[in-house]
Write a structure and sequence with these properties.
The structure holds 2 protein chains of 2 kinds. Chain A has 19 helices and 2 strands. Chain A is an all-alpha fold. In chain A, strands 1-2 form a two-stranded antiparallel ribbon. In chain B, the strands form 3 sheets. Chain B has a two-stranded antiparallel sheet with strand order 1-2. Chain B has a two-stranded antiparallel sheet with strand order 3-4. Chain B is globular. By secondary structure, chain B is mainly alpha-helical. Chain B has 25 helices and 6 strands. The chains are: A mainly alpha, B mainly alpha. Chains A and B meet through helix 9, helix 12, helix 16 and helix 17 of A and helix 6, helix 7 and helix 23 of B.
């Protein structure tokens, strides 16, 4: 039995972060490796937790820090599934970053002396590992203040600082966009904070497990609405999506996948904080949520189609894709919610690959403009394969996890239509049609980038697949997605063990 | 033998046998040696399908759990359709694979080719044997992805020989030529347009029927439950998937430009996989829906009427546009579309045709055996085309009688494949088409004469088209600039084996009890008349394959009646119009609101007002303080008076 296993999962990356920071002159280039190994360790712990949870155990650890606030952690089927997939993505991107950050430093700061290089390089990784702490904290937290705390950690520390220091564009633009991201992140979290403080005035507790006491309270509607607005901001639901294209276009691509997680994890928060404890009260939001999700998915997809900047392209795609999970939750049947969560996990796998592949393209070609790329398949077959893998996952084609996820939440939506409001069937049909657009934009841009004759300016020896440390982690994520597509049962069982109780 | 092992071999042998060559993509020497392994994988599938055909019980289900709570399981069925179709698929894939050993030799992308070729075959087999709709859809999507990979195989677009259309030709604002990369894109985007509604239909079937196994769903009960609108919506959503896959009007364009792929791919795509999958699945669901026994069910007749007319109109459209085609493969592609239309038409006619043979509906049987005959004949013709393209180094129809003499085997194969396919008495397709005439003749009594007219017109034009193909390539075509006849042994072996299967089917028509109606129909006066008309049409076109006086009309036909505009102009224009509106206006407006103008502007204004106070001048600060004190005093005074 491993002691304090959940605490370790949350805290070990933070400790690694501190170690990297304090020993940076000594560890130097090994910072990336240390971050990666640390995250492999926590992933291994998550696998152990997964085995225990799948055997019916619910792991609960208590770490009180005051009368009302605590850092108690709960690992059930839902939180464990979310944490496991996210941590896996963190591992993959940690290894991906080893080369990428080196490239970014050179791109931003030019040829710098060893000491300066080391400063930036280690700075990235000590910030990067805090992502894991934040995500794991949000996943396992049982206290609303703790959940808020971890959400804010994510926004303020790794996201803001990494974006500001390793992002694209010039110095001023980078900081401006990082600040914009900070504002939006804090705004979303503040709505969440107002909601939970208001809930506290009614139930006298910050425990998620006590939220069910809000049932029947006339103020519950408003509390839920405020929390939903906060989460909609994080989820980039139209018209609160305006930050997403800016932020995704500016940050270093090695954390792009995590930014998609950062936005999408709000789906988990909604399920944990609103759907599970306030099941009956939440029903009133179903149709509005589905409509907003539908608008967002179509809007995002059409927006994506217009993009020529490969990073902005991925950003707009995220706007569209996240709303599929939201749609599933809006359907509000067990299958709808399970499908929404499953699709969330599938999307972040696919998006991590797509974004990172976009990063590879920028890394290799030196341009973000997809119109300047063309015929790259001959030079970069692995990168092309990665792009197509991501396209297949996001387009929900078999045998990937996206296919199963989409099937489950659309069946869930139909069930809602069947037993509830028939208008939902119409919404589901429109939503499904909007999925066509996903294939259109991913494959169409794939065609533009990789097919056809090689552009003369790209026919030099520098254009080739990047080092294996960048491609292999992404290929592993693709394999995970395929495994989840072919054999989704264990993950579905884990999610069902919690959602099925509704 | 455990059945599951056999199914594993059937589906996985082609895929696993192509993995080594895919992984060895960097080692050219190894890559050149590995294709036989991929062919061996398909050979194992042939053995497995034959074993299933001869040794497995009829109408048996083999179920293995996958996600049982969602009704998703590995459920395979060995019924009449799947047993025959499985053998047809594997045999055709195997013959083409043998041909491909020669045809693809030295290609720059062999790992890609063999992996997707075998994946294509395996996906089709999954479609053939799956009884579970979800599992079938997995194979269905596998077909889509594999076809994209294979059609766009020559991704560099650097060889005009792989294009479709005359290079640099424009019609209006649109380029009327397509490189392989565009061919792949057009295929997957059109197919996806149909797959998504089909996905929705399957989800709806699961929700309403609680079962996904085609043979176990209570179709009648399901349709009654969902009513007229529900039945129509479910059926149409499902049919859109089938129509797009089978390239029926108006989704036919992708098939024409799918000819940018290697000829082996065209052969496989047009015979036993992909386009055939649409017609096959329609037969399969019709087999179990039994629409002829559900006449009281609202909505079903409308759905089958739509299928009937889409099929027959596609049949006529395909034959007509093929009449003007100058490219070997594209001509054949158009005729495939036409044949598939007839398959849809015949199968859809089952709604009105009650005739049963050995417990099977005659109309569905006709559709299926036409599929089988067409598959071997069309695959042979495609393989012949590939060899001709290799030999003459052009994709356009050229070849005189001298070429026919030099390529005797190829010429003989073409003669057999064309005459056996167009319905000339007493060759193979004649009996099947006679039965089709018989079905449509009855339909004229039961429902309408229009389908019969469409069928007869299509049959006569179709016959002329294939005669024209033979004539312009071997008899009366232009003399080719160059002829390379060296090698090609395996290529010949491939199409000889393929075309010989037409004789096997010929024999089966007279041997199988369920096909005795075909023979009877062949002696009906209408069938004999149609057969003679087809023969006459064939002869005329053979003698006079081109009509210079009809050049303009011919160009209109070879331009596919300007249908490319739908795919390449109208749809993209609409899509990009909305995307630009969203990007340039909606998004910019919201950006202006939040990030660049309104809200930042307001904050700026407030900030500026506050900053304007901080001037550093003492007198100004005293004035402000006095002003505030004064306001407070006034407010207090008013408060005192009021209280």
């Amino acid at each position: 039995m491993i002691p304090h296993i959940l605490l370790q999962i949350v805290v070990v990356p933070a400790i690694a972060s501190a170690i990297i920071f304090l020993t940076r002159p000594k560890i130097g280039e090994k910072a990336g490796l240390i971050a990666g190994i640390t995250l492999i360790y926590t992933t291994a712990l998550l696998c152990i937790v997964g085995i225990r949870v799948s055997q019916g155990e619910i792991i609960y650890e208590e770490y009180p820090v005051g009368a009302l606030v605590n850092f108690n952690f709960l690992a059930d089927g839902l939180s464990l599934s979310v944490a496991l997939i996210i941590n896996l993505i963190c591992v993959a991107l940690a290894f991906y970053s080893i080369h990428y950050v080196d490239h970014r430093i050179e791109a931003i700061y030019g040829e710098v002396d060893k000491r300066t290089w080391l400063m930036y390089y280690t700075r990235f990784f000590f910030l990067f590992t805090l992502f894991s702490t934040g995500f794991m904290g949000v996943s396992f937290a049982t206290n609303l203040i703790a959940m808020y705390f971890f959400m804010e950690i994510l926004t303020i520390i790794p996201l803001y600082f990494i974006m500001a220091q390793f992002g694209y564009s010039d110095f001023i633009e980078r900081y401006r966009v990082a600040l914009m991201c900070l504002f939006w992140g804090v705004a979303g979290a503040t709505f969440f904070l107002i909601g939970i403080l208001w809930a506290y005035t009614q139930i006298g507790s910050f425990e998620i497990s006590e939220l069910h006491n809000l049932a029947g309270n006339p103020l519950t509607f408003w509390i839920a609405l405020i929390i939903l607005i906060g989460m909609a901001t994080k989820l980039a639901i139209v018209p609160l999506h305006a930050w997403m294209p800016w932020v995704h276009a500016e940050h270093p691509t090695c954390i792009a996948g995590l930014l998609a997680v950062y936005a999408n994890i709000a789906v988990y928060v909604i399920v944990r904080v609103l759907v599970l404890p306030l099941h009956d009260e939440f029903k009133v939001f179903c149709i509005p949520i589905m409509v907003m999700a539908l608008i967002t998915m179509v809007y995002g997809a059409l927006l994506t189609l217009a993009q020529t900047d490969v990073k902005r392209f991925c950003a707009c795609s995220t706007i569209s894709q996240i709303s599929y999970s939201v749609f599933g939750i809006g359907a509000f049947t067990i299958l709808g919610i399970e499908g929404g969560i499953f699709y969330f996990l599938s999307h972040i796998l696919g998006k991590a690959i797509l974004f990172s592949t976009a990063g590879i393209l920028v890394y290799v070609t030196g341009t973000r403009d997809m119109r300047k790329m063309g015929g790259l398949w001959s030079k970069m077959p692995i990168t092309a394969t990665l792009w197509i893998s991501a396209a297949v996952i996001l387009s929900a084609l078999p045998p990937t996890s996206g296919f199963v996820g989409k099937w489950i939440f659309f069946v869930g939506a139909f069930q809602f239509g069947l037993y509830g409001n028939p208008i939902v069937v119409l919404i589901a049909i429109l939503a499904l049609l909007s999925t066509i657009l996903t294939l259109v934009y991913t494959f169409l841009r794939g065609l533009q980038i990789f097919f056809g004759p090689l552009k003369p300016e790209l026919s030099n020896d520098k254009i080739s697949d990047p080092p294996l440390t960048m491609t292999v982690p992404l290929l592993i994520l693709a394999v995970v997605s395929i495994i989840l597509g072919v054999y989704p049962q264990p993950l579905l069982d884990l999610i069902h063990s919690v959602i099925g109780l509704l | 033998m455990n059945e599951w092992i056999l199914f594993l071999i059937l589906f996985l042998a082609p895929v696993l046998s192509s993995v080594p060559i895919a992984l060895a993509y960097k080692h050219k020497e190894l890559v050149d040696k590995l294709p036989p392994l991929s062919v061996f994988g398909i050979f194992l599938s042939v053995i497995a399908s034959l074993y299933i055909f001869f040794c497995f019980p009829d109408k048996a289900l083999f179920s293995y759990p996958w996600i049982p709570e969602l009704g998703i399981d590995f459920v395979f069925i060995t019924d009449y359709l799947s047993k025959y179709m499985g053998v047809i698929t594997t045999l055709i894939a195997f013959f083409i694979a043998i041909y491909g050993l020669d045809y693809m030799k030295g290609d720059y992308r062999l790992p890609w080719y063999w992996f997707f070729f075998n994946l294509f075959t395996a996906s089709m087999l999954l479609v053939v044997y799956s009884d579970n709709l979800f599992l079938l859809f997995v194979g269905w999507e596998g077909l889509g992805v594999a076809s994209w990979g294979l059609i766009g195989h020559w991704h560099r677009d650097d060889d005009e020989l792989t294009y479709v259309g005359t290079v640099d030709r424009k019609v209006g604002p649109l380029n009327f030529f397509w490189p392989p990369s565009a061919g792949g894109w057009r295929a997957i985007s059109t197919i996806r347009f149909g797959d998504v509604p089909m996905f929705l239909a399957i989800a709806a079937i699961w929700v309403f029927a609680g079962n996904l196994n085609i043979s176990q769903i209570e179709w009648g009960g399901l349709f009654v439950q969902v009513g007229f609108a529900g039945t129509l919506i479910i059926m149409l959503l499902f049919l859109i998937g089938l129509f797009t896959k089978s390239a029926q009007v108006p989704f036919s364009e992708w098939l024409m430009t799918a000819m940018t792929g290697p000829t082996t791919v065209s052969a496989l795509l047009h015979s036993a996989t992909m386009v055939a999958a649409g017609a096959y699945v329609f037969m399969r669901i019709t087999w179990y829906i039994e629409p002829w026994s559900l006449h009281g069910v609202p909505g079903l007749e409308t759905a089958y009427t739509i299928a009937l007319f889409i099929g027959l109109i596609s049949g006529l459209y395909g034959a007509l546009v093929a009449l003007g085609m100058l490219e070997r493969k594209v001509l054949l592609a158009a005729t495939t579309m036409s044949s598939l239309g007839l398959m849809f038409g015949a199968t859809a006619a089952s709604y009105w045709i009650h005739a049963e043979v050995n417990g099977m509906n005659l109309a569905v049987l006709v559709g299926f055996w036409y599929l089988a005959t067409h598959a071997f004949a069309k695959a042979s013709l495609f393989l012949v085309s590939g060899h001709l393209i290799h030999a003459t180094h052009t994709r356009f129809s050229v070849g005189d009688i001298e070429l026919g003499k030099k390529m005797k085997v190829t010429f003989a194969t073409t003669i057999i494949a064309t005459t056996f396919l167009v319905g000339i008495p007493p060759l193979t397709a004649y009996w099947v088409k006679s039965a089709m005439d018989y079905v449509m003749e009855h339909l004229a009594i039961e429902y309408s004469i229009v389908p019969l007219i469409l069928l007869l017109t299509t049959s006569i034009i179709y016959s002329a088209v294939l005669a024209r193909f033979m004539s312009t390539n071997f008899i009366k075509g232009e003399k080719p600039h160059e002829v390379h006849l060296e090698g090609g042994g395996l290529m010949k072996a491939g199409y000889v084996m393929m075309v010989s299967m037409l004789f096997v089917i010929f024999g089966l028509i007279f041997m199988l009890p369920e096909l005795k109606e075909f023979v009877h129909a062949g002696f009906e006066p209408l069938s004999i008349a149609v057969g003679i008309a087809a023969l006459a049409s064939f002869g005329i076109a053979l003698y006079k394959p081109r009509m210079p006086s009809m050049a303009k009309f011919s160009t209109f036909l070879s331009d596919r009646m300007y249908f490319p505009y739908l795919n390449d102009y109208i749809c993209p224009k609409i899509g990009f119009f909305f995307s630009r509106i969203f990007d340039n206006y909606a998004n910019r407006g919201l950006d202006g609101l939040y990030n660049t103008r309104v809200i930042p502007g307001l904050f700026g204004l407030v900030s500026e007002s506050i900053r304007s106070i901080q001037t550093g001048e003492l007198s100004k600060y005293i004035k402000i303080v006095l002003g505030v004190v004064l306001i407070v005093l006034i407010l207090v005074s008013i408060g005192g008076v009021l209280l």
